Amino acid sequence: MAEGHKSEEALNGVEQAAVFLLSLGEEHAAGVMKHMGPKEVQMVGSAMATLENITTEMLDTVVGGFITAIGGQTALGIDSDLYIKNVLTNALGADKAGGVIDRILLGRNSKGLEQLKWMDPRSIADLVHLEHPQIIAIVLSYLDSDQAAETLGYLSPRLRPDVLMRVAVLEGVQPDALQELDTIMEKQLSGNSGAQTANMGGIQTAANILNFMEGSVSAELIDSVVEADETVGQKIQDKMFVFENLIDIDDRGIQGLLKEVSTDVLTLALRGAEEALKEKVFANMSKRAAEMLADDMEAAPPAKVSDVEAAQKEILVIARRLSDSGEISLGGGGGDDFV
């Protein structure tokens, strides 16, 4: 389970970054964070706020690891673009690295669309709700999935299925068209123009957006897509990763996930889970912890389905973060009642 105090060996990558920034002092830490994206700022900032009892040994380990990682590296006399491509490909694998490389190398000067990532989803929805659905689909494809899901939720129910369908069938955007859209966003946000990669959208993007939406809204949207195009709807469903798919994670991955999840959230989330998933969770805990969790679940009062779904989505967000950082491997998958 998540704890306020950890040994230096137990720190994950985000927490190590937080410890390192805390050691730099306010001015230098702020200078580093200016170069981070919104998601990274939120993750590292949250870790900085929650870490407690940082020991000298912990700091020595983190700083020592940083020095080792950068030792001997220099950008002098090398092709920096090639260097970036090689580093990211080695770190993420060719499939994952492709989109990241495009975003960094082709969109390094982009400001218009990039600024949307720092905006509140409701504000983004207000900005684009009168645009053509295809434009909205491109914008949502550019955002991170959780931010796109919230933005889609603020659009009118009549508009959502059309936008989601366009996200799913979006196979790419010509760079000049994307730059034009970037310029439009730039003018509205008083930013600067820049080119951007056309590698956006698709079935997986649509599935990722749905994964972050409230259960009943997600189900209604996918039903509308299936009604319009059964093949596309089925492909989206096949790519969705839902709470029950956690059973496909190996034991080591489940153990890593449980370290990041609070007991209260886990107790609530498992109220709506299949017995097989509950048993897998129990099997990857100590006997005493599993017994206490089972007792807590049995003694807990009835919970709203919406609350259970919210807890499950919180765990899914953690699982996707751990998957993105390579710490675990996810399997694939396709009103206020009480449980």
Can you describe this structure?
The protein is an all-alpha fold and 339 residues long. It has four domains: 62 residues, no CATH class; 30 residues, no CATH class; 128 residues, Flagellar motor switch protein FliG, alpha-alpha superhelical domain (Annexin V, domain 1), CATH 1.10.220.30; 82 residues, Annexin V, domain 1 (Orthogonal Bundle), CATH 1.10.220.30. The chain is 66% helix and 0% strand. Helix 5 runs antiparallel to helix 6, helix 10 crosses helix 13 and helix 17 crosses helix 20. The longest helix is centred in the C-terminal third of the chain and has 20 residues. The N terminus and C terminus are likely disordered.
Number of domains: 4
Shape verdict: globular
Query: Which structural class matches the secondary elements?
Result: mainly alpha
How large is the radius of gyration?
Answer: 22 Å
Mean pLDDT: 75
Largest beta-sheet characterization: none
CATH class of the largest domain: Mainly Alpha
What's the end-to-end separation, in Å?
24 Å
**Low-pLDDT segments:** 1-5, 106-110, 191-198, 332-339
Beta-strand level of the residues, as a percent range?
under 5%
Number of distinct helices:
20
CATH homologous superfamily designation of the largest domain: Flagellar motor switch protein FliG, alpha-alpha superhelical domain
Looking at CATH, which topology of the largest domain would you report? Annexin V, domain 1
